[in-house]
Design goal:
478 residues; alpha/beta; TIM Barrel; three-stranded mixed β-sheet; 15 helices; binds 5-hydroxymethyl-3,4-dihydroxypiperidine
């Protein structure tokens, strides 16, 4: 029988595939002054006039701290089998050093127990951007000490929850912590210092390595340790060498700066060269790269949209069209000669172009670059201007189409041999979208902010059906 006549095995999602949703502490918990929690850099930043849309803060957020049982019940009712959330560092270790606050840890113990009781697998992210303010006051991520403090915090949380949580993620999107927090300043702590950006990136790499070691020493060896990177799919506008060089530079600054040390134990030589006018990298001490390069079990990929770049002199558009918020300061140190363009196509409410092919490309890239690591899509989703209809429901066909096309891209990557073991929709429910405040709704569950009532959108029902059946329902089947 010729090859083409072979029966085709229908490839679907693996049987143990995790169908999850993701959130982060500052975006949902609220209760910022309860039970000994102290301010994080996001409390300070959001309370600083002009830093967030409408001056909005995470003070109340969606009050998950008090409503977590209902939120877990909602996930269970939808049929999700996994939930990724982050721990608030200042809730557990208010000054960023020293002993833990037990009542803070107890909140997460109760949350995890509730999830396990409902058959939902927890995945814990240790750091999703809420650095204790005291550590920023001491210099923040540009200082080596912050990485040491992170290791201590990782040890505390690993000891407290390692018996019941198997999936661990050290850092979420360290690119945003370093490049938006210390480069463009659109994220907390709002600093705009190119050299500090690269120092921060290095200490986040070190923190990941030290944190991984601490988790391993604190937990049973069956547990899995990963990192979630918002690795960019960087495309050049043309094959012309200057545009390709621009794409290479952005790839180094977006991806190589983290996956170099974490996955290969070295910074790309091209990155060091491109940033030599910004820093001499003398903060990289002997042994740091070995520490950052810890054996991992899995890699988390967060994907929303690809980047399209050219050499600056070929630019048709402003070099600030990189989708990372408005700032007079570029988050890209050493890349003044690069221009960012809008990828053609439909966009979400964030202005981000919808391109599921980028997710397939990203997964296949890391299948090759990180062979042997299980892959998880730890974030993917879309913001839309959702409204409650007269019938009291929220119909969001655009989000269903987005999820359908991106999950189909994941399935195609599985067909192509990638070891993808789960997908976490961003986000379980509408929440505090950082500098954009509450205006951008990413949730599968609508939150009516005045009452904090939760209303599952049609996408939540659609996604729940996918989770329960392990198949993608047609997009119009909500
Ligand atoms: O809301 C964020 C999340 O905190 C990190 N990844 C991107 C999401 C959407 O912007």
């Amino acid at each position: 029988m010729p090859d083409s006549a072979q029966p085709v095995t229908p490839v679907t999602f693996p049987p143990a595939f995790l169908w999850g949703a993701a959130t982060s502490a500052y975006q949902i918990e609220g209760a910022v002054r309860e039970d000994g929690r102290t301010p994080s850099i996001w409390d300070t930043f959001s309370h600083t006039p002009g830093k967030t849309a409408g001056g909005e803060t995470g003070d109340i957020a969606v009050d998950h701290y008090h409503r977590y049982r209902d939120d877990v019940a909602l996930m269970a009712d939808l049929g999700l089998n996994a939930y990724r959330f982050s721990i608030s560092w200042p809730r557990v270790q208010p000054t960023g050093r020293g002993p833990a606050v037990q009542v803070g840890l107890d909140f997460y113990r109760r949350l995890v127990d509730e999830l396990l009781d409902r058959g939902i697998k927890p995945a814990v992210t240790l750091y999703h951007w809420d650095l204790p303010q005291e550590l920023e006051d001491a210099g923040g991520w540009p200082e080596r000490e912050t990485a040491l403090r992170f290791a201590e915090y990782a040890q505390i949380v690993g000891e407290a929850l390692g018996d019941r949580v198997e999936q661990w993620i050290t850092l979420n999107e360290p690119w945003c912590s370093a490049f938006l927090g210390y480069g463009s300043g659109v994220h907390a702590p709002g600093r705009t210092e190119p050299a500090a950006t690269l120092r921060a990136a290095h200490h986040l790499n070190l923190a990941h390595g030290l944190g991984t070691q601490a988790l391993r020493s604190a937990m049973p060896s069956r547990n899995s340790v990963a990192v979630s990177l918002n690795s960019s799919v960087v495309r050049a506008v043309s094959q012309n060498p200057a545009d390709l060089a621009a794409a290479r530079k952005v790839d180094d600054l977006a991806n190589g700066v983290f996956h170099g040390p974490m996955l290969h134990g070295a910074y790309p030589a091209t990155l060091l060269e491109a940033t030599s006018s910004v820093t001499d990298w003398s903060f990289v001490l002997d042994g740091d790269l070995r520490t950052a390069h810890q054996p991992l079990d899995a890699l988390g990929l967060n994907y929303y949209t690809p980047a399209l770049v050219s050499a600056a002199d070929a630019a048709q558009e402003s070099p600030r069209a990189d989708g990372h918020g408005a700032s007079a300061h570029s988050p890209w140190p050493g890349a003044d000669d690069v221009a960012f363009h809008q990828t053609p196509g439909d966009r979400t409410e964030m202005g981000w172009t919808i391109d599921p092919s980028g997710l397939h490309e990203l997964i296949m890239r890391y299948s090759r670059e990180a062979p042997g690591l299980a892959l998880y899509v730890t974030e993917n989703g879309a913001a839309y201007d959702d409204k409650v209809d007269a019938d009291g429901r929220v119909h969001d066909p655009e989000r269903i189409a987005y999820l359908h096309s991106h999950l189909a891209a994941v399935r195609r990557a599985v067909t192509d041999g990638a070891d993808v073991r789960g997908y976490y929709l961003w986000s379980l429910m509408d929440n505090f979208e950082w500098a954009y405040g509450y205006g951008k709704r990413f949730g599968a569950v609508y939150v009516d902010y005045p009452t904090l009532a939760r209303i599952p959108k049609s996408s939540a029902h659609w996604y729940g059906r996918a989770a329960r059946t392990g198949e993608l329902p047609p997009p119009d089947a909500a």
